[in-house]
Write a structure and sequence with these properties.
The protein has helices at about 10-15, 25-35, 40-50, 50-60, 65-80, 85-90, 95-100, 110-120, 135-145, 150-160, 160-165, 170-190, 190-200, 205-225, 225-235, 235-245, 250-265, 280-290, 295-310, 315-320, 325-335, 340-350, 355-365, 370-375, 380-395, 400, 405-410, 410-415, 425-435, 445-450, 450-460, 465-480, 485-490, 495-500. It is mainly alpha-helical and about 500 residues long. About 45% of the residues are buried.
Length: about 500
Amino acid sequence: DVQKWMGGELAESSVNALGSDDRDQCLKAVRSIKNATIGSNSKKRLYTNLGVIPKLERLLSSGDEELITQVVATLGSLINGTNPDSLKQIIESQIPIVLIQLLNHKSLKMVEATARTLKIFFRKPNAPHQLIFEERTLSGLVNLIKYTPENIAELAATILASFYTSRSYLEKSELLDRMRTYQTSLWASGAFEASMKLLFSNQTKVINAKSQESALRIVGFLSFMNLDICKSIAHHAKILDALNKLIRDSSPIIKLLAASCIANLSRCKIDTIVPLSDSATVAVVLKLLHTSDPEWIREEVPAALAHILIENEDLQRMVVDSDAITILISNLRDESASPSLIQSSLKALAAITELLEDGRRKVIDTGILPTIASFLENTSIGIRLAACDCIRSLSRSVKALRTALVDLEITPSLFKLLDDESVDIQTIALAALCNVILDFSPMKKMALENSGIKLICYKTSNSNVTIRMNAVWALKNLVFMAVPELDSLYPSGESIACACHI
């Protein structure tokens, strides 16, 4: 029983005091809860279970500036943890809307406290980021960058970039559609020009580093797979010179963010916006693979590397010749690795092995395939997707199709993913199956004997055009030169019926 838990009686007393008519007693209780929950997930869970969040929400409308400021800070403490119930209750309440309104408060102390809490809140992947891009909120945040002290301006910029920074797994089409909408709104709001104030700030070095970080996040967000905005950025020579310098900064965070911006701009293939060569950018990111502090750098570097390498054989060869594969595989074998690190490492391996047989052989020879295959069963959609993409790249190896993947019996796992809740996973699983059921692969017979034709035929009527196309390609590879097997397995002509249906 939660009341019998250590500190339960004191916690219950503090929560009850939040409803007191005595203002000082109420304020004391808020401070007590804030101090108790900082850095303690168990205390956050305890207070949440005692119903603290609805009571804090009511206090936000008290009109008492000092009390509200303490409530806002306490909410930040409750959000900044691993307790999903706290976040869920806050998302489902009116608290995010009230906090956004408090950004317009006359007190800079209140504004700063609110911005800090919102920064924590919108860092969560499932936070309602659409609230940021409502016209009034967007305009207010941009004005905070323009007209408030740098510590508040930096927080506002970080909030604006939070969707890009914290983007969780979304279906690819949904992610890109939402990204385009948000990028358009953000560019039109003047956020890019406002963020330049932070990038070229003359304040103290500590604050300046944070300001540069938040400005680079906005540039990274705006330039991500958006040709039109990249063209507009190309007219700002000052930002290009800044990126050229910042990629050599002493801070790993600044280096990574600058490299990501350069990669985004470079992928648009506009000569005027490549301040550094792609190989120089990759060299910087490869060095960052050895960085372990802070932890989020270790998590984000592989994802940044994957983005740079896509469809670039020369850069993939450069990475294969480095120690990157060894580091990434070590991440996958690390039992303490976070889900984000596993996902980003799998993404990087998929990109490295996309085009080069040498890369595939190097990965397969490490014996990591069983571990990668195990991630196909992971509860995280993002990890399953990255693992499936990795298998797709590795299955382009003829050697792997005859040996390592056969030993793994990977075909049933891929067929199982055809019913995954994620459309993207279904799409990539079909693409992987196109490889593993080629005529020279021993897995082709296994697929035929396990209702492979029926399962793939079912996908040819899917509403998603990419799934339909991949299914037809997979079916083509499966039935190619397989007439004897088809006659034996489907004497009634079911396979012919399927082909006629298509």
